[in-house]
Design brief:
Layout lengths: L1 H14 L2 H25 L9 H15 L6 H8 L2
Length: 82
Amino acid sequence: MLEATRERLHELVNALPASKVEAANKYLESLADEAILEAFRNAPEDDEPLTDEDLKAIEEAEEDIRQGRVTPWEEVKKELGL
């Protein structure tokens, strides 16, 4: 059943007019993003204590955020080819 559905999705994507391909891509990416978020929501809580190294890294990251040294999510996805 799953394979047949995947094959049907491929057929539908291949049949799309060029003007609709980008919209379909964005929609499918949003579904994938939602699946990743759902996996994070259902992940067990990390119960390991933070090390001094962890705490230092968190402090550095928070300072980067305060200073605006961040990369927008869309740019990160583009760099990763997502």
